[in-house]
Amino acid sequence: MSLTTMTTALLAVGDAAILLNPVTPVLTLAAYAPYAWLISSKLEKDATAYNLNKGGYGWINPALLAGGIVAVAVGLLVPFAGWLVTLLLEAGILVGYWKWRDKQVPPGKQFKLSMLSKLKDKAEERKAQKNAAAANLVFLVGRGEKAKVPGKDDPMLEVHQATERVIGEAIAARASRTQVQSLQGSVGVVDVVDAIVTKRDALTAELGGKVMDYIKKHAGLDVNERRRRQVGKVSVQTSLGSKELTVTTMGSTAGQSMRIDFNRDEQLKRDFADLGLTKQHLALLEPTRDLPGREGIILLCAPSGFGLTTMAYAMLSRHDAFTSSVKTLERSVDLRLDGVDQLQFDAGAQSDFATTLRSIIRRGPDVVFASDVNDPGTAKVISDAAGNQVLTYVGLPVDGVQLALAQWIKAVGSAGDAARGVKAVVAQRLLRVPCPACKIMGPCSADQAKRLGLPAGKTIELARASGKVLAKNGREEACEVCRGSGYFGLTGIHEVMPLDDDARKLLSRDDIAGAYQHARRNLRMMLMQEAALLAVRDGRTTIEDVARAFAPAKPAAPAAGGAKPAAAAAGAAKPAAAPAGGAKPASPAPAKPAPKA
Fold it and tell me: What are 167-181's pLDDT values in tens digits?
């Protein structure tokens, strides 16, 4: 049927309807005009583009126009409201075609009502903004865009609120990291604030698992991967500002665990001059900074979580990476250093850690850092290269130089080979810095002055942690800076054991204690607790925190056969929340118990 024939039919029906209602034909024909335009100018082209005229050429356009003619005819026969009937019939024809057409075209090419879609998007956007404004924590994804916050009717709202508690409360407490760990029947949450571990209320196993998956999703990790180690980053916005989260997940037989580090890059960026090494320590390490003494092995050790990676990166900064070749091999590159060639070990590669490290050393670098010696043969590769004018730093997550030497000998496999080339061992612990906003300065007692090595009759003012400030109303309140703990931040204390030929001879005979005593008597080695008391004198920490850090370890259960535990046999001193090792310190000074974090 041609358009002329259709029009003639419409006019004939219209002439008959004029006798009933002269306004109806005008409105009804006016309703047909945009309908016919839409079909002829838009739908015909669309049908041709997607080859929808199957079974005959050009059938869709005439069919839709004919349907419109029928709609107009029906409308002309209805008095007064006929034009409305026509609009409804035409709309029904178009909707029917829309549904049929969307099933024929490829995915993503379906029709959308742009206006309705925009209105819906606007409504969703306003709802998301309202939810975000009511939330205490919002994830920032992409280019800093706020992630969707579940609404009150969303079943994920409970998960988001639990996530707010896990992350938000940690940020409010100034935690450097939070550990979320699957336990028997629950999920534990632990914060670390200024190296002090604080347990929080556990989550149910179901809710805790959902919280970990929720955080993994926003950090760009594989939610379904629960065994392999994954690392991702995401930022969050809270009322206390924005924080970057470094999220590390792994699995074990106990279940999934997650470690969340807050602003980790800031924690790792520490200049060598800010490590807290004394002038005596610096004098012992100075010969290894440049040639000709820049060769051999320096063992770096600290308990897990006590800044071993930070110390290693700061040690590398001693050397000019733009005039020297500085390379690293690490399990995980936590911070990119300017000028340093850092390689992250790929556990899935054909080459193992030892072979990869040997390849790096063969290229003739000046300085190398190996993050660990866990893989067999790694320590032997380092030991064999000790005389090749390369200085190698080795990270060992143990507490104390004696335990570090014991682990090094075990890793190399021979005391004689292990002793060759070792220049020094640097051990680190962390002590808390008194809060600058609420600390109290006061004179030390005569006994404290003696223990601090002050001349007889001389006294100095020492810092003490308070955690309280005087409010305007004259009442004491918890300090807002340190959240009432009395401490704000950490400082490092160290024990640097140099090794000369005599010390290496003792070490080659597996006489670790003898080498240690030789360094103490003949090589001006300062004990760790002596460095801690110097930090007290300098105001970098308090005598109470030294007493806490060097408190004797709790007695361990006797080993089989009545043998003493290895740490106790070595005369170990145990830092809070860390493995023990090293030399047994003398009691520093009478002090009150440290405030609980």
Answer: 999 999 999 999 999
